[in-house]
Amino acid sequence: MFAIAKEIKDIIKWRELLGQMVGREVKARYKQSILGYFWIILNPLAQMLVMSFAFSIILRIPTNAAANVPYSIFLFVALLPWNLFANSLSSACGSLVGSAPLITKIYFPRTILVLSTVIAKIIDFLLALTVLIAYMIYYQMPINLNILWVLPIFFIQQIFTMGLALFFAASNLLYRDIQYLLSLLLTLWLYLTPIIYPADIVPERFKVFFQLNPMAVIVNAYRQAVLGGGAPNLTSLSIALVVSFIVLLMGYGYFKSREKIFADNI
Amino acid sequence: MQETVIKFQNVTKKFSFQSQKTFKEFLPALIKGEETSTGFIALDNIDFEIHKGECVGIIGPNGSGKSTILKLVAGVMSPTTGQVTVKGSISPLIELGAGMHPELTGRENIYLNGAILGLKRKEIDQNLQSIINFAGIEEFINQPVKHYSSGMYMRLAFAIAVHVNPEILIVDEILAVGDSAFQAKCFKRMEEFKKNGVTIIFVSHALGQIQSFCNRAIYINHSKLVTEGSTETVCKKYLEDQS
Q1: Rounded to whole angstroms, what are the CA distances from A86 to A29, A104, A106, A157, B102?
Q2: Whether the Cβ atoms of residue A182 and residue A89 lie closer than 8 Å to each other
Q3: Are B194 and B55 in contact (CB under 8 A)?
Q4: From CA A116, how far away is CA A21, in angstroms rounded?
Q5: Is B144 close to A31, i.e. CB distance below 8 A?
């Protein structure tokens, strides 16, 4: 814990660099593309339309039985945070390797390279969120104060993401196999998380595994908060918070233990 | 004697290259108990000190370990054994343009690279015009740097780096590029740094540059420190070894 407090202090000292790196990430990505930032919205929109067609019209997956929620919104509320999670991890995984010239030449806190990609993905997420908001207004979805729960849930998600991001970034620098492992892992993980289906149709005997999967708890909590299911399950959320913190501590510990040999091995 | 700002004490740097690059090769090797890495000694028991305000040249053939010394000073690598002590802020002029992003404009890159070198936004704002003038790329400043010629690219990178106010300046063979007018400009700027008491470490193959610019030189060969002292004697020794 103490080490993380020190790291945060270090990052604050280098905040100008962090800002510039986030800017680089966001600005450079869509240069020389005609639609530019519109891709950030177009991507999830297309994904949602096709997945809604496949899973609600063809497969007829039920949404929450009580609330009368259109499948597209039901899906989007979970899919957007999942995309944020998956995109953050994939880009963080390559963040150190992609900055090899910097790592071998100039000293600055290496965590900034990982953190800046994760922050850049949050900016994408906020842009994509406008599509969801437009949809919810169109369907006149009722919302209540429980929606404020999304803030602490988002906080937990980012802690969890950052822990894994640090681990994957550092280990991919040493073994490039990690990036392929990660993309496989993310594909499997998507189906084992209640995103295209509701959590309550998971058979009782498997439920314990879903409790242990922080992304399942997080995604389900978003749904409850946004789609009028009341306050999220506090016990599950607390467990997710504790697990996320442990993941962050372990990811950070691993990153720091490897940091000294980054420049030797990149 | 002035205070010591850089001190190498019995510094050895060993690189271990992973012999097996993938899990597929690595796991069986680990199980069989084979050696999983091969070692290479880049620096062997190096000792030297550099004092505040000195200008020290490091010479030696390719692959002798010069760049490794600079990396240890810059703090991007740590020694395998021994101790490296560095006091003061460092600005590296090593392989300029490490932080350049080809898709961003010259102006955007000034801010990005300035931040990488530890400049505050305000400091960059103040120096922006001076950086652009130094690089001499006024008319291209809003173009993506991928359209720059390699000379322009290098000049921009150098212009940013010399606007940092470091206590220690590391210069690694960067002056080989650029036309003679620009080189002269760079040396003028480095003379200014020298006058202001900045400690400079200068790596170059151009012995003429070392002799005219540095007070002292260190000669490295085959990972070992061969000799150090006045630039004249050290350069002479180096030339003798070369022939």
Answers
A1: 17, 28, 29, 11, 27
A2: yes
A3: yes
A4: 6
A5: yes
Instruction: Answer whether residue B165 shows pLDDT above 90.
Output: no
CA–CA distance, A51 with A141 (Å, rounded to integer): 21
Using a CB–CB cutoff of 8 Å, tell me whether A106 touches chain B: yes
Tell me the Cα Rg of chain A.
19
Q: Residue A264 is nearest to which of B15, B21, B103, comparing CB atoms? A: B15
Residue of B238, B226, B229, B203 lying closest to B69 (CA atoms): B203
Q: Is A12 on the interface with B (CB under 8 A)?
A: no
User: CA B32 to CA B28: how far, in whole Å?
Assistant: 6
Q: Is A62 left (phi over 0), alpha (psi -120 to 50) or beta?
A: beta
Tell me, what amino acid is at B207? L
Interval A141-185: pLDDT, tens: 888 888 899 999 999 999 999 999 999 999 999 888 899 999 999
Which residues fall within 8 angstroms of residue A153, CB to CB, at 6 or more apart? Answer: A218, A221, A222, A225, A232, A237
> How far does the CA of residue A257 sit from the closest CA of chain B (Å)?
13
- Model ipTM value: 0.80
Is residue A233 predicted with pLDDT exceeding 80? Answer: yes
Q: Who among A17, A106, A177 is closest to B74 (CB)?
A: A106
Nearest CA to A168 out of A240, A257, A95 is that of A95
The set of residues, in sequence order, having a beta carbon less than 8 Å from that of B5 and lying 6+ positions away, is B50, B51, B52, B86, B87, B88, B167, B168, B199
Look at the pTM and tell me if it is higher than 0.90: no
Between B38 and A220, the more confident residue is A220
Please identify among residues 53-112 of chain B the ones whose CB lies closer than 8 Å to any CB of chain A.
Answer: 71, 74-78, 90, 92, 94-95, 98-99, 101, 103-104, 108, 111-112
Distances (CA, A) of B109 to A174, B123, B132, B144, B151: 29, 15, 11, 9, 16
SS3 B13: strand
**What digits encode the pLDDT tens for the residues B17-66?**
765 556 667 777 777 766 666 778 889 999 999 999 999 999 988 888 88
Q: Tell whether the model's pLDDT for residue A65 goes beyond 60.
A: no
Structural domains of chain B, ranges and CATH numbers in brackets: 1-30+44-89+168-173+199-243 (3.40.50.300)
Query: Could you tell me if A265 lies within 8 Å of chain B, comparing CB atoms?
Result: yes
